[in-house]
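Late entry, evening session. Most of the bench is empty. Finally got around to the prediction I had been postponing all week. Sequence below, unchanged from the version circulated by S.P.
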Amino acid sequence: MTDTSHERLLVIDFGSQVTQLIARRLRELNVYCEIHPYQNVTNAFLAEFNPKAIIFSGGPDSVLRPGSPRPPADSYECGVPILGICYGQQVMMHDLGGMVEAGDSQNGFGNAEYGRSHLFPSARPIQLLNGWFSDGSEQVWMSHGDHVSRLAPDFDVFGTSANAPFAVVADPKRHFYAVQFHPEVNHTPNGIRLLKNFIGIAEFDRDWTIGAFREEAIEKIREKVGGKKVICGLSGGVDSSVTAILIHQAIGDQLTCVFVDHGLLRMNEATDVVSMFRNHYNIPLLHVEESELFLNALEGIQDPERKRKTIGKLFIDVFQKTADAIPDAEFLAQGTLYPDVIESVSFTGSPTATIKSHHNVGGLPEKMGLKLVEPLRELFKDEVRALGRELGIPDRFIGRHPFPGPGLAIRCPGEITLEKLNILRKADAVYIDQIRRHGLYDEIWQAFVAILPVRTVGVMGDGRTYDYACALRAVTSADGMTADTYPFSHEFLSETSTRIINEVNGINRVTYDITSKPPGTIEWE
């Protein structure tokens, strides 16, 4: 549990795929909130957390199943507003004396409902729905099988849809509210207004700002670290950059950054990182150039998982060897974000299918015996970028597309060679330059080139070529969990293909990857 002086909203997680969006929307409204899985929220936890309001999330279970998730009984006795969403509505009705039934495909009313739906007002106006129904109805996103068939005592209906007669219900006297749809998703366009109304009912001061966070974080770092030394693994990415500069503002030269250059970076990336942190910010920085070591270890390896594990193990070995040479270091700084924290205490605690090893290298604290400093663990990615701007970090770093820990290794299917890496670096630089020239960089979540493990025949001038093919990748996304292909114009793709073939020796064919996630992943390996 985070120690904060801010008023807090508690989100009790019942396992919805979109629970994180609830917290992100509330943070956008300057309300501090935390997500905790239902099994961790006991009556004692509630008393200690002392929330000013509570939200019950959605979830995949059924309240009709014996042993299904429940909030602690004291939730209803705290005297604070509660909002139940989807499963959260059903659990509220079930707990307070209403009735929930399983979806019935033979019944045309009170049925299961998935996807977009339209909500209509009923009964008298209610504060939760202020600003709704200006056009007579509201688009909402439904995703439920079970449905409420009888209201709990003292509740009334305030909104209905074609298949949800109890789409919005409330007991305004106790400030208990419940909706069958998901206001937190983009498919409920006016959902943010509903959440804003809810925090208005709870009378939050809305004092959660990045400026306030910065000052509080600096004080917490100073209090935790004291006069001890801190080591920070620096990649040049947004998370590690913000972590390093925030800590440096707190403790100055007690911080030493370690930048392991594994030779799998983009063009001029190592130079840019060293210049920014060592020269611009005057932060003590150890630049460890080990590209030959990594390339030798990767020789002949084609399997993606073996690549990742080889890079990860070597990274840890090199980092630890370098860090061991820093005398009296007691703390390791990491750019852990709030989504990482949420995932580490997941709803079920059960293992999930492994698609691939995580991009970021882990395991450092256990191996090094250092205490952790994680100043960003309360923040989402967009908040980290906002904090970076607050710290004065240049936009070219803050706005950079995500870049994986294994670097270009996972954009080079098949065996990795220095020749292929150099070709890939040049092609990627041309592609990103094209995107920037056309003013598209900030519209795209991630863009890169992958060099394919095939050569193709081409004709250049009067001669035959036999060179590599490459694939361009560009996606839009909110959080990287799902992604859609960016809709470049044909003219842009044609122009980019011409530039790459003309400017990069070794490539004679350019393709564009139009696979969404799912079924594909954003990276190629």
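Two things to note before I forget:
The longest strand covers residues 446-460.
The chain is about 30% helix and 25% strand.
Will write this up properly tomorrow.
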